[in-house]
Fold this protein.
Amino acid sequence: MSFQLLATTSTAQAPPPPLPPSLAPRTHIPAHVYTHPAAILLELCTSVKELRQMLPVVIKNGLSNELLFQTKLVSLFSKYGSLNEAAKVFEPINPKQDALYHTMLKGHIHNSSLESSFSFYSRMRSDDVTPVVYNLTYLLKACADNSDIQKGKQIHAQLIVNGFSSDRFAMTSVVSLYAKCRLVEDAHKMFERMPERDIVSWNTVIAGFVQNGMPKRALELVLRMHRETSLRPDFVTVVSILPACAATGSLRIGKSVHGFVVRNGLESSVNVSTALVDMYAKCDSVDAAKVVFDKMDLRSVVSWNAMIDGYAQSGNSDEALMLFEKMLDEGLRPTNVTVMAALHACADSGSLERGRSVHELIDQLGLGSDVSVVNSLIAMYSKCKAVDVAAGLFETLPRKTLVTWNAMILGLAQNGQVMQALSLFCEMQVRNVKPDSFTLVSVATALSELSVLRQAKWIHGLAVRTCLDKNVFVMTALVDMYAKCGAVYTARRLFDAMDDRHVTTWNVMVDGYGTHGFGKEAVELFEDMRGSSVEPNGITFLCIISACSHSGFVERGQHYFNVMREEYGIRPSMDHYGAMVDLLGRAGRLNEAWDFINNMPVEPEINVFGAMLGACRIHKNIELGEKAADRLFELHPDDGGYHVLLANIYASASMWNKVAKVRTLMEKKGIRKTPGCSLVDLRNEVHSFYSGSTTHPQSKQIYAYLETLLEKIKVAGYTPVTDSFHDVEDDVQEQLVSTHSEKLAIAFSLLNTRPGTAIHIRKNLRVCSDCHTATKFISLVTQREIIVRDMHRFHHFKNGTCSCGDYW
């Protein structure tokens, strides 16, 4: 019986001649076959092109019927991906040695589909070829790489049937299969059943736990290996365990691993050093990460990515972008991971110009079709207040993932386009895109801004129906949402019902109490947190200091500021300094607040002077107000809000000439005062009211009812506060304050709701003193609870009093 090899060649070379009839392979191979030049040439072969050039030599010397050459040809054709040519050598051989089957099976596994490999394995068994252990381990690896657990289980059964269930190498492959197919508990069971384990076995199950999101289990296994065996961790162990330290924030263990790396001379490995950089960065030790990074003699793109992303994730946006630019200067080609980290940094810093530069680079690199990169672009443009550009990218992206929808919904919510965010969520459901926890968090964030309790209950119900009501992030978002929709007691009930609470969960509940003016409850909850296993972070302290500020707990707030630094080692951010100025300023301790600013170890920024100016407005301090305003105008000359605050300070002191100067300056700069707007949700519709507006369909009824209502509260003791007007008759002054947006919104709500129903109002500015006083009297004469959310906090008006105690 003969065979013919039809090898493909270039046009410059004639195809090799057909091989002569094959003789039965000899059981004894003469010594000259091993030393023949053709055998040596085959050993030196480096490509399929060279292999095809050697064929004529093999055929000419009558070596094509030798088992050595047949096996070598099958092996080389398989190695270089030419499985068809390997088969043309293999098929005519008769009888075939088992080694040829093993070689062909390996070729199928490496160069063909899983189905083709299984088909050849079935043929091999039908030809009575007994498998060897590496046949099955190769098949297991192929099943693992294809995540085909069903076929993998079949091969596992074959291992048992063929007596390899005690083979350490084979069972390690089984462990790897189950781990890669996300059945890590089954992988662990197989590991436990192994009679003997080497370091490879331990590494396999450790890596399996890490890759399946169970880093704590991985760390436990490493400790167990140390206790129960004499095995020493190797390079693979280190590279597997450092990501587990990063995922769990186990800096102490990470440092121990680093010490092991140094003692054993492993720090020269790029992969080990990169894993160390990533571990330190994710454990909030970005400075230590940079030390490791700087010491690296050789850095891969992954090393740069880890350091850039470490800076971006830790909020060091400028350092991240500087390192990104340095990477480009060194001629390294960024990957999709690199540009996504750079976009994250641009988003956090609000640097739209830099973000656009990265976008241009993405197009040059040909990464514009990468959906993950586009998702990052959508997030970046949204955070940089260019949500229209983000929406354009979203619309033109042909293949939207769930992450894409989530990024766009969150982007719209973050930019105040709440109704558009909810509309997009509805469209997502129409298209049968199943929401995940991040989707619900994004929608809850949007509803938090809208502050509509009815919608809050709807998304809560959806969370229950989709079985996401046990997810800690979803529940945290719901707690925050209810608090921001005025239902702080409902928020607390959800908080108490949670089995697992993240530090953010505690933060949003403390903040919820603070914004509602429930300082005592905020302090009690914060103390409960300090006694729990969850450690407060910088945001926690910002929330509790702000809560103390809203309730006038000055000494308590100062105490927590010191505790943050001295007991927890948290370095104050600019937001913490701003909160401290607000704490002192609201309490009327303006000189103390100004001294605090002057003694800050860092240069004060806008929020610090903004808090000072707001306090000067409350307490009518012209001197310090002017100083704060001067610094604000240097830092942000075009912000109309600060100009208005200064003008109000002057107006309160009847310094009308200075009021006129500020207003003239605003006109020259084209700065306009933000108009006051109040929102009411009624019967699935949001109604907007502006001061003095008459565009609402019920305007006549609203104004008529409001006039009657104002007469009633005057009888009860209300006197209009009109000190912000000049050169206007008294009756006109009264008319101007009586048509503020929140009064119109309250009148509308009273007209269109049943007696006893609580009224919810959302205002875009701080509640003015006249409206605050009027609303207290309205709650008294109508016996209605009125909940007003302004730009800073909640006011609960009931029976003639406000929850803020007139301290806001």
Observations:
- Residues 679-802 form one domain.
- Residues 1-29, 725-733 have pLDDT under 50 and may be disordered.
- Strands lie at 677-682, 685-690, 759-763, 786-789, 794-798, 801-802.
